[in-house]
Amino acid sequence: MADSRVHPTTADSHPPPPSSSSAATSPKHSTEHPIPPNPPPSKPVPPPATYVVQLPREQILRYPPPENARKFQALTRRKNRRSCCRRCCCFTLCLLVFLVIAAAVSAGVLYLVFRFKSPKYTVTDLAIKGMNLTSAAPISPGFNVTIRAENPNGKVGIYYLKDSAVNVFYNDVKLSSGVLPAFYQPRKNVTVLQTALTGSDVVLGGTVKTALRNAQNQKRIPFVVKTKAPVKIEVGSVKTWEITVKVKCDVVVDALNQRAQIVSHDCDYSVRLW
Questions:
Q1: Residue 58 CA: distances (Å) to CA of 62, 69, 103
Q2: Disulfide: which of 143, 153, 232, 256 matches 197 by Cβ 3.0-4.6 Å?
């Protein structure tokens, strides 16, 4: 009987591991992807460093950051425009105040040194034509106005310039208009002016016509004569700037014809120094 014994195998008796060449040529490993080796452990990333930059205060105020440069320029231009507008307004206001003060000083000098007295104006005659109250068509009334201008000053002359205006109204309806002649009125002088006023295509409403008829029956027809005249005052050899004289006369007549007589009159005037 044969002796059957199992001999233990030793480490030297294990078959050698397959080589890389044999692993590459084996059909099982040729179809699988090779497993990459594990990467080495990465080093910890240090936190970002923080830097503090200190700049002078003057440099911060003078030089804005680049992203605010356009805004800074726009604000600077706006401030410059506002400054220019403020300067212009201040200059205009100062000029107006200076003119007012100069006018007041001039008036005071005229009054104190030359004892200046205001001229006096009176409407002495008012002849009327073309006031047809029976026709429904527009009318063309005419007024011949006589104005008495008195200069009571002994050292002041008055130059009446062109571009004057004389208008006649009834109940705020302008009936006729005209101008005064340009002339010079010497010291202590009375000048009588006659001017012809004309109107064209004046439409009178029913209420105005009724009021005129009633006033005509009562022989008290009120009219308003408004005069505006540019003048210059002469003091010695010096002339003032152009001054506007406005005169308003309330005149009441007894008829609407050329033989009308003035029943009453009252004149007020105002002087505009500029």
A1: 6, 16, 51
A2: 143
- List 6's β-bridge partners, or say none: none
Q: How far separated are the first and last CA of the chain, in Å rounded?
A: 160
The reported pTM is 0.60
* Among candidate residues 102, 110, 113, the one with its CA nearest the CA of residue 234: 110
- Alpha helical stretches, state H, the chain: 20-25, 27-30, 57-62, 69-114, 206-218
pLDDT tens for 41-66 read 666 666 666 777 776 666 555 555 66
Residue 209's nearest CA partner among 260, 130, 142, 136 is 136
Helices then strands, counting H and E runs in the chain, come out as 5, 11
Give, as one character, the DSSP assignment of residue 67. Answer: G
Cβ-based neighbour number of residue 173 at 10 Å: 13
CB 110, CB 116: distance < 8 Å: yes
Which residues lie closer than 8 Å to 109 by C-beta, 6 or more apart? none
Q: By the 8 A CB rule, do 145 and 123 touch?
A: yes
Q: Which residue has the tokens 């199992």?
A: 6
What is the identity of the amino acid at 7? H
